[in-house]
Amino acid sequence: MKIATFNINGIKARAQALLDWLDEAEADVVLLQEIKSVDENFPREMIEDKGYNVETHGQKGFNGVAILSKLPLEDVSRGLPGDDDDEQARWIEATVVGDRAVRVCGLYLPNGNPAPGPKYDYKLAWMERLKARAADLLAAEEPALMAGDYNVIPQPEDAKHPDRWTEDALFLPETRAAFRRILNLGYTEAFRARVQSPGHYSFWDYQAGAWQNDDGIRIDHLLLTPQAADLMTGCGIDKHVRDREKPSDHVPVWITLEA
DNA sequence: ATGGTCGTGGGACGA
């Protein structure tokens, strides 16, 4: 089973790029972030025509997440638990029924800039709620993963120029510590578990020639429970997608599971 | 320090 996460930065502008990538990647499950669409306007038919089941959790203008799956999806749940007043569409989860059942959670963690400030407070509070959900998932002792745009640069090795990010909400010590606390519950960060070398990124800003200079950061992650990590057979970043026409500023990150 | 570029929706805001 191949599972990918992809922040597409707007489904309307990215429709063709997404379809092209779906054709080549042949992922069984895709977790999308920043669809920037309400559910009614999401172009589900074009994706269903490629054999995917489609579950969305959209919002007007911003945010929005979705799950695409060639396998059946069960027990779909929308919204990160822990704050009934939070109306931002940043979380969706479902059970994928393959040879084994895998609980997949798609997330779009708040950016948090500028920090300090209310947006950063929201980010840290959201990460605390994420940790609570992560702990509950672990307690089930089943294959499960939480994947998406974490807006967290875990280590200096995950940025071309870490010195330029020291004041940024994606790299502040408090952000990285909150991310580590989630990992330390018992999660495996798929890519870093398999690749130790620096210089692998999943996001390049549209501005200032970031892509041309390979001035990237690695902020899209897949976190696996021990039962999922035991099934992992591969992991990769589809960097070449960033060089295409009308690209997202993120590229897909994926794993393969023996499931 | 500033401005640099996108997407959505059709203005301002988020990233």
UniProtKB/TrEMBL annotation:
The active site is at Y108, D149, H250. Coiled coil: none annotated. The keyword Metal-binding applies. The record marks D220 as: Important for catalytic activity. It comes from the Bacteria. The record marks N151 as: Transition state stabilizer. Residues 4-250 form the Endonuclease/exonuclease/phosphatase domain. The record marks H250 as: Interaction with DNA substrate. Mg(2+) binds at N7, E34, D149, N151, D249, H250. InterPro entries: AP_endonuc_1, AP_endonuclease_F1_BS, Endo/exonu/phosph_ase_sf, Endo/exonuclease/phosphatase, ExoIII-like. Its cofactor is Mg(2+); Mn(2+). CDD domains: ExoIII-like_AP-endo (cd09086). GO terms for molecular function: DNA binding; double-stranded DNA 3'-5' DNA exonuclease activity; endonuclease activity; metal ion binding. Belongs to the DNA repair enzymes AP/ExoA family. This is Exodeoxyribonuclease III. It comes from Psychromarinibacter sediminicola.
